[in-house]
């Protein structure tokens, strides 16, 4: 019974290491950082936010709410784009941070 538990523990550690080393690093450095480095990233964020604002405004108008002006929609979209950019950066930082168990297994010291 002890051998089975040790084997399962070893498998779990290998999966956790793979997640830490490959998946999280890939998401943070290749996907999210790549999107930030894309030259039209801010325009895409603003366009996506503007599309959502327009959709919500149109839906709210069906219930008799007054429509938002284009100026207000643009301001909402610009601020949303800034928030998305900050969230993307924070998510990258969080994904790049290694767990305490991983650092302990590999003898690394965490630098904050």
Architecture overview:
It is built from four helices and no strands. It has helices at 2-37, 41-61, 70-96, 100-106. α2 crosses α3 (70-96). The longest helix has 36 residues, at 2-37. The two termini are 40 Å apart. The model has no long low-confidence stretch (mean pLDDT 85).
Break the fold down into its secondary structure elements and pairings.
Elements (H helix, E strand, L loop, with lengths): L1 H36 L3 H21 L8 H27 L3 H7 L6
Helix pairs in contact: 1-3, 2-3
Name its key features.
mainly alpha, 4 helices, single chain, 112 residues, 81% helix
Number of helices: 4
Q: Strand percentage, roughly? A: under 5%
- The helical percent reads over 70%
Order of helices and strands: HHHH
Largest sheet: none
Q: Roughly how many Å apart are the termini? A: 40 Å
Class from secondary-structure proportions: mainly alpha
Oligomeric state of the chains? single chain
Mean pLDDT comes to 85
Given as residue ranges, the uncertain stretches (5+ residues, pLDDT < 50) are none
> Could you say which overall geometry the principal axes of the C-alpha atoms support?
elongated
Computed over alpha carbons, the radius of gyration is 22 Å
Beta-strand segment tally: 0
